[in-house]
Amino acid sequence: MVYANPMRILIPGGSGQVGTLLARHLYAAGHEVTILSRHPNARPEQLWRTVKWDGLTPGPWATEIDRSDAIIHLSGRSVNCRYNAKNRQEIFDSRTKPTLLLGQLIAASPTPPKIWMNASTSTIYRNALDHPQDEFTGELGDLPDQRGTHEPANLPETWSFSIDVAHRWEEALAAIPTPQTRKIRLRSSMVMSPDAGGVFSVFSKLARLGLGGTQGTGKQFVSWMHDLDYCRATDLLLSQPEITDETNGIVNMTAPEPMPNREFMRTLRQAWNQPIGLPATRWMLEVGALAMRTETELILKSRQVTPAVLLKHGFDFTFPTWSTAAQDLVARLKARQS
Fold first, then answer.
1. Domain over 8-337 is classified CATH 3.30.980.40
2. Which ranges in the chain belong to alpha helices (H)?
């Protein structure tokens, strides 16, 4: 998609995988793209601008806000870690503090952007095995002081932590009024891309090694989104941000067909032509997560999330099913490695 009226788009925290694929897509569409990064290290092939910021204090980078038409904020420490006290605080701070800072600067800007998209996460919804969670009828998961309200009280405490993160992140976005800037909450699922270092490469490594079998019971749902559809949905929101008004700015960035883990992993193995997939029980995953310094919540929580807003407003997914998406992603990853 090439825009007749290119925009100036600022992507704070955009040096990660999702930020890079968005910057690449938006730049190719003719937009002027600037990334804010704590560690700017422009690669030779990178054609968009990168400006240094710390995400905590105003600086020379703040002038980028005044000249931007849209902001897509993606800051946040990876949750692929153990949820100890230090990491929990870093996870909270890396999301809420930059969001609050951007809110202050946008509110004070003489020429604020028209659109502010802020990352959130689909894990804000409850552990749903019964029916999908969309923007209109979805039920939010229990916070630490609400255990047993919408979900069984015996669910692991780490699961309510991730929900708490999502709530605080969205509260930070809402904290400071920006009357001239429309706010959009991007409740994103896993974005699948063949780029190195992403979640697809992790799943693919397991599948190729014969370890990509059922994880836990295999009944928990996996929500995902193909990188091309993620970029195309961003195009739609940039051109028609008002489609989120009826959900108070919420949009689920996810494919329309979440799958149970058992089927998800089997489909990925088929895409890799790997007939073997050793299963992993819950206790095996707990041991593996401890060794890999991560949490099983990332695998075992059921994320059955669907994109009602996108579908209602005519978004045509290029990859609505995991089978077609996995085949495309595997082919592209093979091409990169050849």
1. no
2. 17-28, 63-66, 85-108, 157-174, 199-208, 227-239, 261-271, 282-291, 297-300, 308-312, 322-337
